[in-house]
Amino acid sequence: MTASEKARAKAEQAVGKIAQAAGRAIGNTELVAKGDAAEAVGKARENKESLKETGRR
Predict the structure, then answer these.
(1) Is the sign of the CA dihedral 25, 27, 29, 31 positive or negative?
(2) pLDDT tens-digit series, residues 11-56
């Protein structure tokens, strides 16, 4: 996994978790859902890069 893609994936996951926590704290279900989506995108990106890395071996 390239370092920049790995960092991007981790950042997306972190932003998602922060949005989820903020949404729960203020009772905003839309913000929680956006956080879930951002975290899922980050995990998907991380998995995609892992698969690419596995294919190179």
Answers:
(1) negative
(2) 999 999 999 999 999 999 999 999 999 999 999 999 998 888 777 7
Q: List the domain boundaries for the chain.
A: 3-56
Sequence-distant (6+) residues with CB within 8 A of 47 are none
Buried residues in 16-33 as b, exposed as e (16+ CB within 10 A): beebbeebeeeeeeebbe
Report DSSP letters for the chain, one per residue.
--HHHHHHHHHHHHHHHHHHHHHHHHT-HHHHHHHHHHHHHHHHHHHHHHHHHHHH-
| pTM score, whole prediction | 0.83
